[in-house]
Amino acid sequence: MxxxxxxxxxxxxxxxxxxxFASSSDGLIRLGLKxxxxxxxxxxxxxxxxxxxxxxxxxITTTHDSDDSAMSIVYLKNYLDVQYFGEIGIGxxxxxxxxxxxxxxxxxxxxxxxxxxxxxxxxxxxYNSSNSSTxxxxxKHCKIDYGSGMILGFFSEDNIEVGDLVVKNQxxxxxxxxxxxxxxxxxxxxxLGLGFQDISVGNVAxxxxxxxxxxxxxxxxxxxxxxxDPSASEGGEIVFGGVDQKHFKGKHTYVPVTQRGYWQIxxxxxxxxxxxxxxxxxxxxxxxxxxxxxxxxxxxxxKINHAIGAKGFVSMECKxxxxxxxxxxxxxxxxxxxxxxxxxxxGLCSYNGTQQVSDTIEMVVVEQKADKHTExxxxxxxxxxxLIAAWIQTELMLNETKGRVLEYVNKLCDNLxxxxxxxxxxxxxxxxxxxxxxxxxxxxxxxxxxQYILKVEQNFSTTCVSGFIALDVPPPQGPLxxxxxxxxxxxxxxxxxxxxxxxxxxxx
Length: 508
Known about the structure:
alpha+beta; 21% helix; globular; disordered N terminus
């Protein structure tokens, strides 16, 4: 997803896939999917974009449905709350591929039959242009960058089958090299981007654009329903050209897209137990069907995970900064010094500006193993100082006393998450965890603990994982929040291209 600063966790899930086509004279198609449960050892198996997962493919049967019109519906597979896939066909006759329908990127890529030296290609279906009568050669080479991997390949043109729609002469990427070992493990063959052409590598028109240009959909709208129930036969549904009324109740709340590229919207505030966190004043959020979790700035993730009792990366440096510099930081912030100027002023940062926190913490973990303690420690002390300054500033706005604020900040240090891993919670305490709410379009969208906690099974036991992970995107793109599948499972989501807006309604 070129230049997309995302961090998320995808899972390994060995699963059988049962696909059901439902076609009728009104052009409706349904692809039903089945799934199996995820083990905890698999949850860190891979990252691409960072998106990960594994599964197996299955069979196709046919049924009919004539209630809907002018829409194409593709049912998605639920990889136990963290991955949804669908099937497309490329070429004539169609060659089948399993793809992520991803609103956070804009290119379509699949492995090429010419991919000989990338291990990942040999574990997936590969497109063979010589077997397609509608193939047109382009040959221009391209590179698509993701959060923790990249795709090298070349552009080709062919017909793409999505549900009962056939998009003609679509440009896509044949991958020659999949630059991450994790792609060898991933169950999806490729990614089908549903973002805007503005972020498309090579300025290629996304498949969704071609659907509209070829008048294949009645409305310039597509919508997602994700089924959180791991025992259900359907993992979810994407509808092109409209919405499926049976998957939501009430009316959608629509908010405008604030910047083309990603499906980017304004997030007015974040609440924990109906109390503002103080971290969001008209924040930027991206609605991303290709991200599993809800990603947010490290300071916010730490505060939320502390509130729900999550345990993750514990930084002694953070606690040391509070102990040694907490008083002076309080006084300087109270006097009006801005948080971004504080740490250089007290000598803990040797530069101005905010560092990308997740990269710094990851550097600490990696480089300490290489015995580079001094340099890395200095970098992390700076990062810890910046986090503490942000925390103290938000508490100052709530008129808390110094003693209570420093005590609270010290506890936040205990819960500082490791950005490369999830943080676990006590499964027995889930009923007591607070509601986390997102203010979008003057309406509160609540997530209960049952909705934001991921339950993962392993050896007849269950591990519970927080749905909030740390992600720091530097300006000018950030800071931002990523509303991924956990949010979209709770709220049926409409991507209205015609009116450049996104809508949410309670999913059923």
